[in-house]
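Box 3.1 A note on notation
Throughout this textbook, protein chains are presented in two layers. The first layer is the amino acid sequence; the second is a token string describing backbone geometry. Keep the layers aligned when reading.
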Amino acid sequence: MINPNSTIAELNAMNKNTLMEQLGIEYLEVKAGLVKAKMPVNSKTMQPMGILHGGSSLALAETIGSLGSAYIVDLDKNDVRGSHMSANHVRAAHQGWVFATATLLHQGRNTHVWNIDIKDEEEQLVSTCRLTNFIIARNNGKS
């Protein structure tokens, strides 16, 4: 379970046997309103032209924005679901690592809005993304 006492190692361990593991996404920092992670630019994340695939960037962005929302809600009472994602890819990444930072812009009762910037190792912007998450109250079997 994700909570404010979860360690980075515990959060990374949750990625075993998931898309995040396949893409090599590693969380670096998680706190209320902020999530940082890195992802390699390699054969698993690149497109055939030898650059980072935009879909890999979107997966990274949605992963850390969703983790950010899960971190600040009570998951015993709520589910987090991505509702909308948009991205602008502004620079190609060819090798090494990209680093993503998700910053909470809006924390409402039913929605969270995150800005996620993905940068290369020289801190040049590769992609900038916006994610909206729905926060859905669980019924827990009650009518």
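The chain has a mean pLDDT of 95. Strands lie at 26-31, 34-40, 78-89, 97-107, 111-120, 125-137.
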